[in-house]
Amino acid sequence: MRGRPGTGGLLLAAAAAVAVVVGSIVGQQLLRARGGDGAGVGGILASVSDDLGQMPEVWGLSQGGDELPGGDTALGPAPVPASSAAPGLAPATPPSVRPTATPVLYTRIAKPVLPAGPRRVGIQAGHWQTEKAPPELWRLLTQTGTAWGGVSEVEINLDIAGRVKRILEGQGLVVDVLPTTIPPGYVADAFVALHGDGDGTGDNSGFKMAFSARRTPHEAALMESIKTHYAAATGLAFDFSRVSRAMVNYYGMSWQRNKYATAPHTPSVILEMGYVSNDGDRELMTEKADVVAGGIADGILRFLDAYPRDKLFGQDLLVPAIPQFGPRPAPTPGT
Q1: Contact 222, 298 (CB under 8 A)
Q2: Which of these, 72, 185, 225, 279, is most buried using a 10 Å CB contact count?
Q3: Is the CB of residue 186 less than 8 Å from the CB of residue 200?
């Protein structure tokens, strides 16, 4: 007949139970880092690298991990909380152990090497030459823009883009007026896609702006500069409540999904200048086009003054990666 185990035996049993739980949790962490399908972190990173082509460096990061040289963060194991049981007694149930954060994959994008010369700005005239779009952008072929009162959006976009070009070129900048098809990986000191909106009723008024994620950290500053000067010049209100997912996911800024998009280092925003369907907004964009163009140009110039090239392009980008990429362009805003 065996005797009852003493305190030491209970502690050994508790330690073994905790080890099993911790091992299970760490294994779950590693499985999540592998994508949950057993492919392994290396397989996911290789997949992302293949899709990005020229952007091979991908890092596995987790908030709250250890700092690495250069500011990168390592994926660390989840801490094990201390037992709340009285000293010398085994807990009734193993302690609950949870990871502190979900691992995130990041992509490092090398800074571009720019030729010497004047600064460059891209102004896209929305819907211009959409019929010439490549097969990748086939979903845009039916997105020809809105029209109202005999005035088409594309006419407004192209006219104001040309006026912005003349203002900026007068300040010594190089300006490209771009059609629907943006040069692949387009690099510039700033990019603005110009559009007009329509609501089908003529009731809505105001302008809208947006930028996309996984890009340069300077998009917000470019948008704020244009928004401030545009509102002051035109008197239009910023229609924040109607900023759409199509604007945030605008194909021309979605470099991770579309070949014909601006490079991730290029500060890029989309501007819906007003509602073509609204009599007041339409009159502003057609009869006072110089005022509209002046507000846009002033916002771009103030941004460039505050952000020299070495600030925009002086370092690599570290952006959250998407494990799988596919050509899924969002429709152009405006109908």
Answers
A1: no
A2: 225
A3: no
The answer to whether residue 329 sits within a structural domain is: no
Classified as helix, coil or strand, 51 is: helix
* Gyration radius from the chain CA atoms: 27
Closest CA to 119 of 300, 319, 317, 273: 300
DSSP state of 136: G
Do 143 and 331 touch, CB atoms closer than 8 A?
A: yes
155 part of a folded domain: yes
Output phi, psi for 194, to 5 deg: -100, 130
Do 79 and 187 lie in a common domain? Answer: no
Sign of CA dihedral 257, 261, 264, 268: negative
Q: Are 87 and 205 in a shared domain?
A: no
**Which CATH number goes with the domain that contains 219?**
3.40.630.40
Give the Cα separation of 264 and 57 in Å (integer): 15
CA distance 230 to 295: 4
Decide if 260 contacts 203 (C-beta within 8 A): no
Pairwise CA distance, residues 25 & 244, whole Å? 40
| Amino acid in the structure at residue 22 | V
Query: Shortest CA distance to 209 belongs to which of 237, 175, 179, 170?
Result: 237
What total of structural domains would you count in the chain?
2
**Domain match, 190 and 77 both:** no
Question: Does 330 fall in a domain?
Answer: no
pLDDT tens per residue across span 146-192: 999 899 999 999 999 999 999 999 999 999 999 999 999 999 999 99
On whether the pTM is more than 0.70, the answer is no
Which domain, by its residues, includes 271? 120-316
